[in-house]
Design goal:
This protein is α/β, with parallel strands linked by helices. The chain contains 8 helices and 6 strands. The protein has a 4-stranded parallel beta sheet with strand order 3-2-5-6. Strands 1-4 form a two-stranded antiparallel sheet. Helix 7 links the parallel strand 5 and strand 6.
Amino acid sequence: MDVKIEPTWKKALQIEFEKPYFKTLTDFVRGEYLNKQVFPAPQNIFKAFELCPLDQIKVVILGQDPYHGLNQAHGLCFSVSKEVPTPPSLVNIYKEIKTDLGSEIPNHGNLEHWAKQGVFLLNATLTVLAHQAGSHQGKGWETFTDEVIRLISEKQEHVVFMLWGAYAQKKAWMIDDNKHLILTAPHPSPLSAHRGFFGCQHFSKANAYLKEHGKEPIEWI
């Protein structure tokens, strides 16, 4: 199957694209876009892959679902376009960055500058129906993104995995902690951030680890 995706990812995932489940998933998603309002826009489904090639990954941040509100989702977990108000979880992420690094909080929620530095912002499910959280879960996306996580662990060295919340932390078994750094914390949602996301210092810890292994740190702001 010819999937339009960044070349390093296309090569690594070609076998996955040929599997029966992926064809079933593709047919399902195509039908949803034809008949319903689905986010993100079709050209942004693989945007995280486009902006962050496999061989350039330094940090992985895992989300669960794209935003399901109008104009919010644009293919990067936790991120929104600059003209869209910053969502509450990202507000809390920015608060932790300010506390951790002493940086001022941006006036927008677009995280493309993270992705272009090697921060892979992956949602476990890459599409969602408008105003229906979780509506495309269990259709095959999780099988695909689990393989993506496994590939990063297998093919890359010294990547920082930030697993926030119980859902993301269930993916830890796929990551080789002998060659990567796994950082866990509660989800940055307003419902849980006070339980340990605030004060986790993941951003300074990630940069210290990257520098220790000869990689450029991330400019988080």
